[in-house]
Every structure is written in C-alpha cells, then in structure tokens.
Amino acid sequence: MKNKLTFILKENIFIFLDYGQAKHQFEYFRIAISLFSLLNFGCFLIDYRIFLVPNGIVTWEVTNANSFWFEPHLLKISSLFSISDTYLLAISTVFYVLSLLCLMLGLYTRLTATIAFIFFLLFSIQLYPFLYGVDLYQSVCLLILCVFPSGYSLSLSSKTANAQIIQQQKIGVRGLQIYLALTYFAAGFGKMQMDSWFNGEFIFLSLSDPTYQLVNFPKDIHYFFYILSGIIVVFAETLYFVFILIPYFRTLLLLVIITMHLLISLFMGLVPFGLLLILINIVSWYPLIFVDIKNVVKPSTSYDYAL
Amino acid sequence: MRYKLFISLFLSTQACMMSKLVPERPMHNSYYIEVVMQIIFSISKVNHLYNFFTDPGKSGNYSYTTNNIYAFKGQPEKIEGEFISKNGTIKHLVCPLNYPRLNQIQSIASNDTTLYNAVVRSEALFFLKKYKSYPILYVEVLNHRLKAKIAYNKFLKTVETDTIYSNYFSMN
Lengths: 307, 172
Prior knowledge:
heterodimer; A: mainly alpha; 14 helices; B: alpha+beta; 4-stranded antiparallel β-sheet; 5 helices; extended
C-alpha cells in the first residue's frame, strides 16, 4: 500500500503512462499540427496584401511599437541587419513553409519544429492585432513538437523507435492531454462566473452577432435550446478533465465537444479554430474512444489500457 | 526525466497564466512575473487569449463593434464617394476563412483604445493609398450593446448603439 502511494506521488501526472496512448499517436499529432499550420498560414498568404506586407492594413510600425523590447519583430530584424522589409518577409515565408513541410514529412523533426516555431513567433508578433484563440493552441503544439521526438515510424526517413523514444513520446502525449483539459477548464470556469451562460443569453447573442456569422443561424428556435446549450457547454468544458476519464461517457463528451467546435466553425465563422481543436481532441483521445467502441462491439473486462 | 520536468514546468506555468481567470489573483499583480512568464514561453502575445468567448470583466454583457468607412471627394455642395465597409465591416476584403481575423481588429476598439487609435490610422492610410481618387476618408466606429429578452418562447435582442470613435483622414 505504502509502495503504491509512493509510486502515485512520485509519478503524479505521468502515472499509468500507457493509459490512453497508442503506437503512432505522437506522430499523428505531428502530421496534424504541421498540416494545420500550413493551412492556417495559407489563409494569411491568400490575403497577404492585407495582413502580411509591411504597409498592410495594420502597418509593421504599429505592431512593432506595440511589441515588448524583447520581442523579435520583423521590423527590428530588418533594421538590425539592414535587409529590406519585403526581402525579409519573403525569406521568412519560405523558411516557415519549408520547415512545416519537412516537419510534416518527419525530417529532422525537432530542428524543423524549432525553426517553424521561431518563424511562427515572428509572424505572430507582426500579426498580433489579428490573432485569436487558434494561434495560442498552434504555438503550444509547435512548442511541444520542438521538445519531443516525433519523426520515427511515420516519417519519410523511417526509423525504428526504441523503448526510450516511445516513452518520451508518451510523455509528450500526456502533456498535451493535460494541457487540453486545463484550457477547457479555464474556458469553462470563466463562463461559469457569468449568469448569461446559464440563462442562454450569451449563446443566443453570440450566435446572432452579425460580425461573426459565416452561415446564418436559424432565428426561430425555442429559448430552451440556448439555455440547454449554454449549460452543456459550461459543464462539458469545466468538467472535461473528469468526464474524459469515465469510460463510454468520454465518447459522449468528445461528441459534444466536436459538435460545439463544428457549430463554432459554421455559425461563428471561426473555421481554423474549430478545425484545430477537433484535430487535437481526436489525436489526444482516439485510443480511449477505440477502446470504448471495441468494448461496445465485443465486451471485454480488460479495457482502458493501451491498445 | 528532463522531458517530464519540461511538461511539469510547462503545465505549471500555463496553470499560472490561467489563474488570471480567478477574480482576485495577488500573484499576478507583479509586472515582473508577467514579463518572466512571457519570456519563458515567448508565446507572449497569445497567452492572454485563454479567455476566449468570455469577457474579461465577467459581466456577462455582450457587445460587438462595427465600423463604417467612407471615402469621398469634392466640396460640401457636391460630394462623391463610396462606402469601403459593407454592413459595418470590411471583412468582404478577405476570404471567408479570414473573417475572424478582421473582426479581431474591430474588437480591439473596445478593449485597447491606444492600440486601436494606431490601428485606425493605419487602416486609413491603407485605404487612402488604395482609393487614390478619393483623398478624404471618414471612419466611424460603433459599439453595439446587446440585450436579450424572452417573448413567445423565443429570444429577441435589443441593440443600443454608441459611436465610440469618428475621425476624418487625408494624406495631408
């Protein structure tokens, strides 16, 4: 008993590291994040005259003036090395896209993830007024890929991962899972402090906000729908870290979370945000969902551990 | 071991950032703690975004911002011009996937006035260069405070609109 308690205290968040983990999970995560990052940056490139160029809709001078002294804005770099702004922008774009492509293919993953992360930061400082939640998650995912080994089995230069590498990847996945639970808790706890999330008003008003809508949300819906949706969102987010550990219930929770992100994408226009969160949720928890499905199809007593 | 240490440190710091959600947070009163956290992770500019879909003051109120941008030329007796914004937004200038990015700069109007002043000037410069035949630009920013009430089993919204910013710009 004492040994078990010591083990739990010693291992804390890394206890039962096999729980909710599958063989190529971290590699799927790498591929999903690099593909998403390419898509997200591709959106900026489509409207590069508005967002990216030095004299775009928010000029580099404005974002540079708003940056901290320690933040490496492209304007600071161009003045430091006496490079033209346009040239620096072109170089940064090429390096960022190339590093993401290499990361997706599994080539020198930690190096390419670090290069991608550095260029992501450069662009995020320059594009600060346009950033929202999606960029936060992307930066964290890239940071995790900078640290953990991810270019082994699903890589262009395929290598066999030894037990130590697999263990390191599992630590990375566990970190991601806990991070996801933490952010949902933070979002849910924030909403819980507001009555308007419990009486349906906030959801109704946000879905009828004309500045967000991509597809118009139907207007003639009973008010109870908004009350119920608000309550479900608040509890699903706040208690995500508990519900995700309950067999079968976690599948329902993920369905709720994915539906929520689909609705956010469709009716609030936050397509990249919805897409990234759906990807992270699926990559983080698919082994447990497979176990649930497997147990429904063919009941077994030994569920829950690694596939 | 160092991987476990990294994850533990990372999650602890993220938890500290999230503790901003707690109404009274003595440890976040220090400017230096904020700076150290931002240096450590250098995710600085995006770390404040944990509070998405909620308002920082936890008032539960809902509002949104629109802007009307009008470019014109001529004298008071004969003015020619055109609206650059449509239905209070300039998002038609970008592809639909980028709509939230442009909405984001409009939302700055109500939470970071200093930055927004600079952003509006920058926007004005951008449009004055783009619409060279219209040398004067009028920018008006409106804040819409929404309230919901229930009538006949449905929510209805009421909107109160205030002008929070208006200015004329020219290249001169």
